[in-house]
């Protein structure tokens, strides 16, 4: 392909700039191709906001957080929110505009960097005749088809550092510290970050918990060696059934992304249930901002270069993936087959149990 488009869709993620840089430099250096950067994901494709990416523009951005192209969650061309009158939004099918802009800009291929939402749109674009290459992105690490996504290592590094900091103040005050982490419906960030930070309790969406084991862990630590406890809770973890107050709050929390606050609920339950002073911290978007770690810079560069090779050589309908440490293209269809969750018998869960971590289930 001589003209390759590139866009970043969905929530941002450390490493996006590394992918943009690698796609652009590989396409230019190895194939003499032109790379067109599309602004704000599929929104920019619908609205025709794009520009040629120069070598200069992508130079020196590998270590920068965010995305130089901008991103958007609301750019699905088939379900595009349009303001029809003041304050009234209507969802319309504007896919014809996106397809027209692909033609107008002469894009022979389009590299879409994003999570499950972006991959769904990418496979629809493919069906509509656009030559698509996907690059999986999310701090949640839940895209099927790939062992790992860039951004995840940075997020768990932030979680680990946060737990280290919370532990010293928890220890000084003999408190319970609850830290709520991201991950949407998957527990990868809580599991990996919690293990790395040495959390005493880890609560995941994939392992239903009850209060007794959690309270028991707090009592055990207070009475024995350490007089503080660190609880790492995934935003998507479900509160135990049967507790009327929390069950009521939990019902409203159907989308963990929008109505979070499980950290506060868990903290309140622990303080009431154990009598020990408890505080809650929500790490939120700190996990998504800032510079990518070494591992994420390396993965982003590998993914970006591989995506440019696919785009330039005409290998379409694929997503680049990392499997057993090797980067290779897999069918986009594999990436849109649900979400990758933590198996409750995952080896890291077993290792954490062996070092005494409580998952609240026994
Ligand atoms: O998918 C990435 C993620 O950061 C999730 O972990 C989180 O639930 C969600 O996005 C937050 O989305 P927003 O930035 O739209 O609040």
Automatic annotation (TrEMBL):
Annotated metabolic or biological route of this protein: Carbohydrate degradation; glycolysis; D-glyceraldehyde 3-phosphate and glycerone phosphate from D-glucose: step 3/4
Reactions performed catalytically: beta-D-fructose 6-phosphate + ATP = beta-D-fructose 1,6-bisphosphate + ADP + H(+)
UniProt KW tRNA-binding keyword: no
Residue ranges of domain Phosphofructokinase in the record: 3-310
The protein's enzyme class: transferase
GO cellular component, one term: 6-phosphofructokinase complex
Subunit structure: Homodimer or homotetramer.
NCBIfam families given in the database record: PFK_mixed, PRK03202.1
Protein's UniProt name: ATP-dependent 6-phosphofructokinase
Source species: Quisquiliibacterium transsilvanicum
